[in-house]
Specification:
With 271 residues, the chain is mainly alpha-helical. The chain has ten helices and no strands.
């Protein structure tokens, strides 16, 4: 992908995401359920990524575009479908509910601003996909295979984590904590595998010959996702909710299970 192409693609993508998250804002106000926000974000990011992949260019092997499109379509479709099912079957997302309490009478305005920040956060992800899809080296390269395997493994892991949590909620007593399967090794395995999925795009974008330095920009995607999930809008508000609603049981869970990366617990504080 050339710099001139990006100068056209980025503004187009930005406008699309602004409109999509404005729709999410309106849907939230009408339904009172914040789950629709994440479903719309997932679908819109997937659609914008697909458009970016097939944005006119002649220098890219079609096989790499097809690979990128397939991975994005699976990611977006699975995540949006899962969130829709969860939203239809449950109450409001506790993270957004906490924001509603915090913002009070200013909730409508603050939510609109917050969702436009989410629109902006999608841009580096979409650009990373576009850059990876346009890597000019011969296809398939070893990096394509490695990236595809990593993405597929991450999609499987995230789907498994979501399925395990869904099954647990159907049978568990109210107030209990899911600590089975992947949830016995990470307090947020779904977030971990989401991060791992975005780690695949720098691999696909890499050209070790040095002929495609633009590919290095794709590293922004996993870096951004890690910061957002671990330090901003993912783990911290969810763990505060769990601490408030589960108390000592959640503290015990934190002592036994690591916060993000699967493995033995390395910290006991609640984020």
């Amino acid at each position: 992908m050339s710099i001139p192409a990006m100068s056209v693609l980025v503004p187009f993508t930005a406008v699309f995401m602004v409109l999509a998250m404005s729709l999410a804002w309106a849907v939230r106000l009408r339904t009172g359920n914040s789950g629709w926000i994440d479903a719309i974000w997932s679908a819109a990011t997937g659609l914008a990524s697909l458009a970016a992949i097939f944005f006119p260019s002649s220098e890219t092997p079609f096989g790499r575009k097809l690979l990128a499109a397939t991975l994005v379509l699976i990611w977006s479709g699975r995540l949006a479908t899962h969130i829709v099912a969860r939203t239809r079957g449950g109450g409001d997302d506790p993270r957004y509910a906490a924001l509603a309490r915090e913002w009070g009478a200013d909730f409508r305005r603050q939510l609109f601003i917050f969702l436009q920040i989410q629109a902006a956060a999608a841009l580096p992800l979409i650009v990373a996909v576009a850059i990876a899809a346009r890597a000019p080296q011969a296809f398939p390269a070893a990096t394509d295979v490695a990236g595809a395997l990593l993405a597929i493994g991450a999609l499987f892991g995230e789907g498994l984590a979501d399925a395990q949590l869904t099954r647990f909620r159907r049978t568990a007593s109210r107030g209990s904590i899911c600590d089975i399967g992947l949830w016995a090794h990470s307090r947020h395995p779904n977030y971990f595998f989401e991060f791992l999925f975005w780690c695949a795009w720098p691999l696909i974008a890499l050209d070790f010959s040095g002929a495609y330095p633009l590919g290095l920009i794709a590293f922004a995607a996993p870096a951004l996702i890690y910061v957002l999930l671990v330090h901003v809008s993912g783990v911290p508000p969810l763990e505060r909710h769990m601490q408030a609603s589960r108390g000592a049981a959640f503290e015990d869970y934190c002592r036994r299970v690591n916060v993000f990366f699967p493995g033995p617990a390395r910290e006991t504080k609640i984020l």
